[in-house]
Amino acid sequence: xxxxxxxxxxPRDGLQNESKKLTNIQKYNLIKRLEKSNIKNIEVGAFVSxxxxxxxxxxxxxxxxxxxxxxxxxxxxxxVPNEIGxxxxxxxxxxxxxIFAASSEKFSKKNINCSINESFKRFKKVMDLSSKNKxxxxxxxxxxxxxxxxxxxxxxxxxxxTKKLLAIGVYEVAISDTIGIATPKDVELxxxxxxxxxVDISKIALHMHNTKGVALAxxxxxxxxGVRVFDTSIAGLGGCPYAKGxxxxxxxxxxxxxxxxxxxxxxxDLKSLVSTKNWxxxxxxxxxxxxx
Length: 292
Ligand code: HMG
Ligand code: MG
Prior knowledge:
Bound molecules: 3-hydroxy-3-methylglutaryl-coenzyme A, magnesium ion
Order of helices and strands: EHHEHEHEHHEHEHEHEHH
CATH topology: TIM Barrel
Structural class: alpha/beta
Radius of gyration: 17 Å
Low-confidence stretches: none
Largest sheet: 8 strands, parallel
């Protein structure tokens, strides 16, 4: 039976864009519920500036609490944009982080306040500290299917930046449709271009926002092209505060439902996920975008 790996990004990507700011207790309860559904990889926070993304303030305290009470083998991860973020991450027991680059200059500037080139100089410092401290690093490549400020992005540029991220030592690159504009044809063509550029497809994940309702179809195309790692967000929460028009990620429960039907193993308990989606709607008073 085929198998896919799901990275649940709801507690980070999902909550960073919610106008309602959840308390650390609510975030902790959400993550514990996700673990109960047998989700094994959860992005739980971000070591970014609280002035830029106030919803991620308190990530260090949350991570310390999660490790203190850790009973499962769940892998927790968090975003790190620069050396300051890395030094803050090192004050916690976290063992997996993610750096995030952009495929378009304007989005890079809006999101992390620097050019793409400058971001790679910052990542170098993060990578050095990570390797010294035995921390695994994932990479995101945003605006891979188009930028809210510059429009289309060339496949050649995405291929070059993907290879550059892999060359600095990330173990996987999440090709990200930040504003959710891709269609399956775009996914097919971009993945074929990456393969042509000799990118190992087993090191590629897809991170699809669902602005136009096509994210599930995009994942299916990615699966057909050989991708086996997908990012999703419980209840379809999410978006990027610095990408105009970006809406939520593909809902975890929608993806699990599809793969269950295709007899592709996710190991995730759908019933329990749906109960968490209902819980978020009720107890956290967050309007969701799920189909369950
Ligand atoms: P900056 O203002 O250019 O940084 O921000 P700076 O180096 O000039 O420093 C200015 C102040 O920020 C200083 O403090 C620093 O100490 C502090 P002050 O002296 O003024 O008191 N600072 C920090 N504080 C906490 N943590 C840090 C940090 N770095 C500097 N790491 C920075 C640069 C990257 C920090 C900022 O632009 C930022 O935090 N941006 C937020 C980016 C973000 O979280 N975006 C959303 C996540 S990415 C996303 O959603 C896309 C993704 O889902 C994939 C996809 O869908 O495409 C991953
Ligand atoms: Mg995202």
